[in-house]
Amino acid sequence: MKEIYFNRSFLTDFEQSSKREYLETNTLGAYSSSTLSGGNTRKYHGTFVVRQPQIDHHSYVLLNSLHETICVNHKNYELGVHQHPFTLQPKGHQHLSSFRLNKIPAFVYDLDGVKIKKELQFSPNKNQLLVRYTLHEGDVVRFILKPFSSFRKIHSLRTSNYQSIDVREVENGVAYTMEEGFDTLHIQTSKKNEFIPNGYWHSNVEYLEELNRGYDFSEDVYSVGLLSVELKKGEPLIVSISTKEEEVVQLDQVFENLLQSKKELLSIDACLEKAADQFISRTLDQGVEVCAGLHWFGRWGRDTFLSLPGLTLYREHPQPALCKEVLKTMLQDLKNGLLTNTGVGNAARYNSADASLWFFWALQEYVDLTNSAAETWNDFKKYIVHILDNYKEGTYYNIHMKNNGLLYGGQEEVALTWMDAIVDNKPVTPRAGYTVELNALWYHSIVFSLEMAIAAGDDEFVKKWQDIPASLKQAFKEMFWDNEKGYLADACKDDEKDWSFRPNQVFATSLKHSVCDQSMSISILNQVKEKLLTPRGLRTLSKEDDKYIGKYKGDQKTRDFSYHQGIVWPWLLGHFAQGFIKAIGTEALPLLEQIYHGFDDGIHDYGVGSIAEIYDGDYPFQAKGTISQAWSVSELLRIKAMIKQLKYRSN
Fold first, then answer.
1. Which residue ranges form the domains of the chain, and what is each CATH number?
2. Could you tell me if 26 and 291 are in contact, meaning their C-beta atoms sit under 8 angstroms apart?
3. pLDDT digits (tens, 9 = 90+) for 98-154
């Protein structure tokens, strides 16, 4: 992988630089993100976006942007970029000469004989962003900072209300809040500055990506005034943006020490390691959780369990204790056998049939790494028994086990699997009844639980469940398999079977306790490789299908129609790779290496340094959705670990 670097010709072309985005995070769920141009194109962009747990579990934009102006030879150069109706003004990106993501985002501005470098990173374990400005060429300049704020939830937009905003001065800076109940925003500098109060509303700031996605895209942001400071060559200026008043002495040394502690991002391995850390955060009262994707996803149950092994167990330095902590956090909201789809506590929603089953897979990965079957059974038994009993006897959404062991579930108007897009109150991919991956997961969950119970000597549990897997496996083959087609039906209900060729059947081949035999798996995977595999993931539907849609675009309704009708998802590659290893062993190595290193260039696109949520199903497989998705990153980390293990086995 080549270094993540963009030059002047790229950056000064707004059409290009506004389509690449950077992202920095901390361990508390805060982030700083914008485009490489410096202009915010999403309502989710912001210099300082933090959670407000005293309000709810969402993230809030406290500082939209920190607009910089450089005074050189009695002339002002604005480095900020703002989109207004039919115009881009100012155009600070025209002064950019380079962007580099070596350890942290670093911009270099070159203007009128002056060269200034801007770098940003979060302090660990606190809501404080540090921005360093260094004058590399030129003797001294007047440096002016103008903060723009909205103090609103990331999903909403702000309209000016012309209320008076109280601003108080703190050491080398200012502090203010725009809404009661919010944290106070503190902006301080490492050097003395002059604060010039000049509060005003900056109206009709537009976010072009929101316009493209069919959402409201215009808002008003507020500036409390200007912070003016002299910037000298050899004397870096550090700006601290925090929810608390900070010590400003030795901020430069604090910044440098933190930077030196980080690894260089010179390979896809290093980028994935850094990206993995972005999703895991410690909450004030809930524990440790996984953000499904940045910018707009929060905590999702299914996504948590699917991404957890890759984010914790398959890292350069495995973190099994962290994995267990997340599992325990998620179990706090267990209800009638179901783990949450979205939300926490009173806001939890349980419209997911597979989240609880993916919990078993994540737990199995933890047990295999730690060799702790008996211990884990004793620790998690009450949750395991609770889930299995509820699924067997029946719980919400008509989820229950039939006499032959198969799992049935769903209602016509509810989408309970990961293919959960709803348009006009109807699932785009209706899958009520028997679904292929739910039954593969159900089989795996029972067999894995029996494996742990046997290790722990729990004869009562074993006696109750030991006869189900054989019946279930036979019923599964009769229900889903077709010898002539050589693949599995996607969903079955009554006498109808949906033979749409989708990737959901891959999970029947990949799980440790597979419901398929080897010949079935090889047939399935070879067809998946032929019909669904792309350089960016698996298509969600074969191109041969009349329902296939190859481009993800348009308003939300149009996008939702395409979401699982051909659009490519990288996370599916993890189980596709695992299925091939189970089927053909070390012979799968060339394919896995091809898949993994196919992303060497992809790490430079869209959200630089990370992997997107989805990609178009048609060439050139353009990145779409969130710029950094937990299960996209996690499954590539798992593939990397699989490659390492295969090489070890083949030597």
1. 5-260 (2.70.98), 268-650 (1.50.10.10)
2. no
3. 999 999 999 999 998 899 999 999 998 999 999 999 999 998 999 999 999 999 999
